[in-house]
Design brief:
Length: 213
């Protein structure tokens, strides 16, 4: 079963993707994570995208489509979770084509609905484990021992350079301008499953599980 998690920055896509990976052995494909890896590895592409990401603008379609294309050649496990992809109609069209070419299809698009006020506190409080990628929050999801990851025991907590109010404003604008048309697109295809993203993490996970039956 291949699914898309669709929603504005901070909606909880990464958090829910990790839960689905644990529950159903699905494979999380986060273009944000892939781009940050490219950035950290200092490749030419990484350097090109670094400034665009820091500003909160979208990286060009061909770059992210290329990254996804590579991953689709690999193991599909219990299905792919597209997290943060597609973000434009051109990316959505490309995904349809890529899936068709490898004999796969899309089961559902989970739209995570969260209002903008909540997004500001989610984004400004977010930090992640630099070792295993577990996502935390200063108020709503703290590790049991301060600064130490519950999952892997390392103390390499990181705060994203683009997780500030100014960049978030640009990211939200990009979301409404370029990504939100995908809601109508997938609704028309009969794939859209809206869920309330404002509940607690476990409650949202339960709602997603129900939507996917
Ligand atoms: P968030 O967790 O805030 O939704 P991501 O980690 O998914 O953010 O993405 C971080 C940044 O990486 C985006 O602001 C954008 O610059 C870039 N990016 C990620 N995915 C895409 C994509 N599918 N298309 C274009 N740019 C992307
Ligand atoms: P996205 O991938 O959509 O940008 P994340 O999963 O990274 O979102 O979540 C953004 C922040 O909000 C993180 O700090 C995360 O711990 C926190 N968070 C995620 N889901 C919830 C929730 N249901 N309630 C409260 N905080 C949440
Ligand atoms: Zn960790």
């Amino acid at each position: 079963m291949n699914i898309i998690l669709l929603g504005p920055p901070g909606a909880g896509k990464g958090t829910q993707a990790r839960i689905l990976v644990e529950k159903h052995a699905m494979i999380q494909l986060s273009t944000g994570d892939m781009l940050r890896e490219a950035k950290d590895s200092g490749t030419e592409m990484g350097l090109r995208v670094a400034r665009v990401m820091a500003e909160g603008k979208l990286v060009t379609d061909d770059i992210v489509i290329g990254l996804i294309e590579e991953k689709l050649k690999g193991d599909s496990g219990g299905g792919f979770i597209f997290d943060g992809f597609p973000r434009t109609l051109a990316q959505a069209d490309a995904l349809d084509e890529l899936l068709e070419n490898c004999g796969q299809s899309l089961a559902a698009v989970v739209e995570m609905r969260v209002d903008d006020d909540a997004l500001v506190s989610r984004i400004t409080g977010r930090f992640t484990c630099g070792n295993c990628g577990e996502v935390y929050h200063a108020k709503t999801k703290q590790p049991k021992d301060d600064g130490i990851c519950d999952q892997c025991g390392q103390s390499e907590m990181k705060h994203r350079a683009d997780d500030n109010e100014e960049s978030l404003r640009t990211r939200l604008m990009e979301y409404y301008k370029l990504t939100s048309p995908l809601i109508g697109y997938y609704y028309a295809k009969g794939k859209l499953k809206p869920v309330n993203g404002l509940g607690e993490i476990d409650a949202v996970a339960a709602e997603i599980s129900e939507a996917l039956v």
